[in-house]
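Hey L., structure's done. Input below.
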Amino acid sequence: MAIYTDGASRGNPGPAAYAYLFVRDGEVVHESSGLAGVTTNNTAEYLAVINALREAMDWTDGPVALHSDSELVVRQLRGEYRVNKEHLRTLREEVFTLAGAFSEVTFSSVRRSDRYVSRADALCNLALDRRERG
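Output:
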């Protein structure tokens, strides 16, 4: 299964949201979004990955290909970048704990223009717009 994630904040830190899509055979089979409180964009990106993996456990225990437009998060998860911030280290460890529920999890960076990431971004903005409207 392929998972596409995005996190967004309006301000850094600011009101934040996350979203993710599950894709099988090129078709979106599930999408979800949520609010992440007031936090940074990088934290929202990690929360997108964490929430996606949590829910994906109900869909599969097989291989998962996770895609994000956050090069920082992907490179930190691959071990290519060090994680200097303690709160991000904690989130990274949570990702690895969740990843243990699957036969394999790969992390890849995709362009923001990717159609699935664009949809996840739109879901983040919808969640933030709903929050602002009350």
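The chain has a mean pLDDT of 97. The first strand starts at residue 2 and ends at 9.

-- N.
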